[in-house]
Predict the structure.
Amino acid sequence: MAKRAAPGRKGDRRGGRRPPARKTTSAARRSTTVRRERATAGARRSTPRGSAPSGTTAGGATRACKAAPTRRPAEARPARGGAVRTGRSTSRSVRSSQVISSLQDRPERPGRSLVTTNHDVIRRWARERGARPATISGTEREGRAGVLTFNIPGYRESSRIREITWDEWFHTFDLRRLNLIYQEQMRDGRPSNFFRTESPDREDG
């Protein structure tokens, strides 16, 4: 007499018991943990202490790299003076003139109106024309030079022009916050002797 097969349980296609679920062994867990710890240690060694990896912030967010500011070399910086002085009454002539702040600056074109306060630029301009620092007699104020000018041979000669030292000239020039408006060349390219001192506070030059 044939034996009847034991009835299979629900979910068991073969009628036998359901195979137990595969479990991760303790050895596998330890292997995974070791790999993670090694990867973390390698990342820490490649990153300086207290800083985030390049291109990221401490929290891992991407950040833009900022370029370090470029500094002008010392020899390119203008000597004493250079910046144009402005005030409540700055003239249109000053605003429309090309600023010459160092010996390296050159006029944009012949006949261009220029403005400067740089001592070296002023000295060079005067030396090229044989001009000497001077003031106008009778305009002195409180023991210092009055109206500033230049004694240029054959140009605006006057018996009232009195020569002074460069130290006196520049002391007054800076004390009264003057600008020098001048030209290097005329429009036809010939040397120009034109100059004028002017104050942004409308004090007579």
Q: What stands out?
A: Helices lie at 26-46, 92-96, 119-128, 166-175.
